[in-house]
Specification:
Elements (H helix, E strand, L loop, with lengths): L3 E9 L5 E10 L4 E5 L6 H8 L8 E8 L2 E2 L5 H7 L4 E4 L13 H13 L3 H14 L5 H6 L7 H14 L4 E5 L7 H18 L2 E6 L2 H7 L2 E6 L2 E7 H6 L4 H18 L5
Parallel strand pairs: 3-8, 3-9, 6-7, 7-8
Antiparallel strand pairs: 1-2, 1-4, 4-5, 9-10
Adenosine-5'-triphosphate binds next to helix 1.
């Protein structure tokens, strides 16, 4: 059985409009899948549905099985058990995940305490280690800072550290680098690739940008207007896109890659 098995997923607004239609895909343990498509194609709603986090009023039909738990129609109690452990999410804007009024160290301590039952010195040490793991310099200073006192790139690393603290089987990353400038974006992608590789974690990586997705995943599902239009390896999609829409994504990724190449070796 796959770690994540999505079958005929349809998401509708309260007035019955379908935002995602008949979506089927799966992610095996240790596998990395990219979800790609233009803005509004339904990528974020799909990832939210995976963790039972859709906004109130939306209805879901079909099946989303995460590590054997049916998410569609699940009680909040079973969702709490599966979130974090089976899958954790990193959003585009890390401030979504971080409490602006709480020091970074305390926020990071929470999942470590909950998941690993750590407290006192052991918990403090684990917080410092988690910050070091995402290559944050001066972990002591970062732990004492409030989210607004550190840079956007540092906040995104903290959000990644929080997601990894739960030791999930699947990391969902929803445009995790889009809000960052190009150099920081590149560093973040390398870090994510390394940390996920070390842990053998599965990844669902969401982006509108094929060049970014191809840095982390091997297989891609292309979405348009809430539907899957094409899937395959990045290599096949780049060599022989079957849909004009995919071809346009490939062209724009090529333009971006050559722009990055002009900046010298990464
Ligand atoms: N709470 C909501 N109520 C009504 N419609 C919504 C809501 N959230 C999203 N939508 C609509 O659902 C569609 C899919 O949105 P979604 O955020 O999943 O797209 P996306 O591919 O992730 O885009 P982006 O890259 O801009 O985040 C869009 O047309 C969007 O306007």
């Amino acid at each position: 059985m796959s770690l994540l098995d999505v079958r005929d997923l349809t998401i509708r607004t309260s007035d019955g409009r379908a935002l995602v239609s008949d979506l089927t895909f799966s992610v095996d343990r240790g596998e990395r899948l990219g979800l790609i498509g233009e803005s509004g194609s339904g990528k974020s709603l799909t990832t939210l549905a995976t963790l039972g986090l859709l906004p109130d009023g939306m209805t879901t039909t079909g099946s989303v099985e995460l590590d054997g738990t049916q998410i569609v129609g699940a009680s909040e109690k079973s969702l709490v058990e599966v979130r974090g452990r089976a899958a954790a999410i990193v959003f585009q804007e890390p401030l979504t995940a971080l409490d602006p009024l709480m020091r970074v160290g305390r926020q990071l301590a929470e999942p470590l305490r909950r998941r690993r039952g750590l407290k006192g010195d052991a918990l403090r040490k684990a917080v410092a280690e988690a910050l070091e793991q995402v290559r944050l310099p001066e972990p002591g200073r970062i732990a004492r800072a409030f989210p607004h006192e550190i840079s956007g790139g540092q906040r995104q690393r903290v959000a990644l550290a929080m997601a990894l603290a739960c030791e999930p089987d699947l990391l969902i990353a929803d445009e995790p680098t889009t809000a960052l400038d190009v150099t920081v974006q590149s560093e973040m992608l390398v870090l994510l690739d390394t940390l996920v590789g070390e842990r053998g974690m599965a990844v669902l990586f969401v982006s509108h940008d094929l060049a970014v997705v191809s840095r982390v995943t091997d297989r891609v599902l292309v979405m348009k207007d809430g539907r899957a239009v094409e899937d395959g390896t990045v290599r096949d999609l780049v060599r022989a896109p079957r849909q004009p829409y995919t071809e346009a994504l490939v062209d724009s990724a090529r333009r971006l890659e050559s722009a990055l190449d002009l900046e010298g070796p990464r």
